[in-house]
Design a protein that fits this description.
Largest sheet: 7 strands, mixed
Radius of gyration: 13 Å
Helix content: under 10%
């Protein structure tokens, strides 16, 4: 029902930064969590970062200290600031919104490619 559109992906050199943004087609209602996942070719989908309604955040160990997740229900956006990027961060990144009724909404993904 809700459509999420990611943007901000692209090609960046090792050590560079990117800021991903996700915008919803309608107002967020009853949001429980907002998350970013990523999936590299031939690899399993991985949870990168998440933020709960109370502001609590969680990150996979490999991105701690480099990535920052933020969400704004008033603006219907989810952002992911990525710094000190490495080739291991290359993947398609997806934003996901989960409601208090346990409905999940996924974006179509944005490609992030990090070169040496």
């Amino acid at each position: 029902q809700v459509q999420l559109v990611e943007s901000g992906g692209g090609l960046v050199q090792t050590g560079g930064s990117l800021r991903l943004s996700c915008v919803a087609s309608r107002n967020f209602v009853g949001i429980k969590t907002m998350r970013w996942y990523r999936q590299a070719p031939g690899k399993q989908r991985e949870l990168v970062a998440g933020i709960a309604k109370d502001g609590t955040t969680n990150y996979v160990d490999s991105v701690k200290g480099r990535f920052t997740i933020s969400g704004d229900t008033a603006k219907n956006t989810i952002d992911l600031q990525m710094n000190s990027l490495t080739p291991e961060d290359t993947a398609v990144y997806y934003c996901v919104v989960t409601t208090i009724w346990d409905s999940d909404y996924w974006g179509q993904g944005t490609q992030v490619t990090v070169s040496s």
